[in-house]
Amino acid sequence: MKFESPVAVTEIAAYIGAELVGNDQLIAAGINEIHKVEPGDISFVDFEKYYDASLQSAATIIIINKKVACPEGKALLVLDDPFSAYVKLVKRFRPFEPATKAISDTAVIGEGTIIQPNVFIGNHVRIGRNCLIHPNVTIYDHCVIGDNVIIQAGTIIGADAFYFKKRADREVMYDKMESCGRVIIEDDVEIGAGCTIDKGVSGDTIIGRGTKFDNMIHIGHGTVIGRNCLFAAQVGIGGKARVEDNVILWGQVGVSKDLVIGKGAIVLAQSGVPSSLEGGKVYFGYPAEDARQKKKELAWIKRIPEMWSMLKK
What pLDDT does 309 receive? Predict the structure, then answer.
């Protein structure tokens, strides 16, 4: 998320009650998770094993829970609970805006777009030209939809990320990571009925141009889907995954978070994808592997009773 106007690092430090280490002349341009950061962004880290990755990232300002050597030209904001400080900043710079009507006055809707009854369009949404939004679709604040997009009935665009921090010492164990990202749906996309596409925690969930979704598909926060992909019903994709162009996922494929599916890959129905896959191949099973090899293995498994009976003779 980018701020509407830059904010001095000294102001940020004072607001969250942090000790400022390093360059106190910096200006913050936005706030982002480590995998999305750009120069000028604020990020946070609260596990020592991720310190190096955070300090060497593009982030200019890092909220951290231990005083360490500050990289040249950057600033550290040191306090006990970086997670809560980060959430506090999100609530300040992207506060919740209650809706006052079904279609916000701040929404921008392009020429030729048809909005069917009972659609909700939140604050600061942008929808392009010649779109068709079917009944009971919900589009949360700040989402961006391109031209010639079709969204079937009952779909929800831009719900909060499923992202919580476990607090084992508390009765209520999970702290919510407030979402300030967006969903961006590019031109010529079709989204089926009853789909859910979560916004990014701080960056964008992106659906690439020409991609088509069947019904009942879930896309997790911060996921980037390439161009001209095809997903059949009940596909589920975890947060921060990256699916490259021309990928086909058949029905009920489950994809874990933080991985890459390469360009042109095909994953057959009911497969599970726990780790990255190369492009240009066909996959099947759990874990998803080369489909031909997997089917050979299944054929041999079916013969186990026969072979066992032969061994007993």
Answer: 74
The pTM score is 0.92
- Compute the distance between CA of residue 137 and CA of residue 152 in angstroms, rounded to an integer: 7
Q: Are 103 and 121 in contact (CB under 8 A)?
A: yes
pLDDT at 313: 64
- pLDDT per residue as tens digits for the range 83-113: 999 999 999 999 999 999 999 999 999 999 9
How many CA atoms are closer than 13 Å to the CA of 269, on its beta-carbon side? 4
Dmax (CA) of the chain = 84
Q: What residues are labeled active site?
A: 221
- State the fold for domain 108-296: UDP N-Acetylglucosamine Acyltransferase; domain 1 (2.160.10)
Q: Are 78 and 21 in contact (CB under 8 A)?
A: yes
Q: Where are the CATH 3.40.1390.10 domain residues in the chain?
A: 2-93
Query: In the CATH scheme, what is the code of domain 2-93?
Result: 3.40.1390.10
What average pLDDT does the chain have?
A: 95
